[in-house]
Write a structure and sequence with these properties.
Length: 138
């Protein structure tokens, strides 16, 4: 699972979250402590669309005393498959690298670029951040 700082970088780079069942998120902001990760689920945390915005509703089975939080207070933590999908046609491969690391290769402007990290999700996230940066410069 990617670190909160990497998730913030993705959000700040323009990645937009449309909450769906199975998505991971953390509560983001100084009023929330810890790095607890929640999962959108029809049984525990549901995404509700209102005219005023999206609300994440906590359905009574969590240990938190929360009814709901605004989407702006939540930090999406994309899964490995979501990061790979977001890379789209730029994605070339995921390989094991030396020293228990993972390497993601993408193709940008016709050239291969490699990104390594200690877990596959973080390698995918680094590649996606680079791809977003290149597309933003166009």
């Amino acid at each position: 699972m990617i670190a909160s700082e990497v998730a913030r970088q993705l959000r700040d780079a323009g990645l937009v979250w449309h909450p769906a069942a199975g998505d991971f998120f953390r509560l983001d902001g100084s009023e929330f402590s810890g790095d607890e990760t929640f999962t959108i689920s029809d049984m525990t945390v549901e995404s509700h669309e209102f005219d005023t915005g999206t609300i994440l509703g906590f359905n009574g089975t969590t240990e938190w005393a929360l009814d709901s939080v605004a989407l702006e207070q939540a930090l999406w933590v994309p899964r490995e498959d979501q990061l790979r999908t977001l890379l789209g046609e730029a994605f070339v491969s995921l390989q094991a690298a030396p020293d228990d690391r993972w390497r993601v290769t993408i193709r940008q402007e016709g050239e291969p670029h490699e990104f390594e990290a200690h877990d596959a999700e973080s390698a995918y996230a680094a590649a996606l951040l680079a791809a977003i940066d290149v597309s933003a410069r166009r």
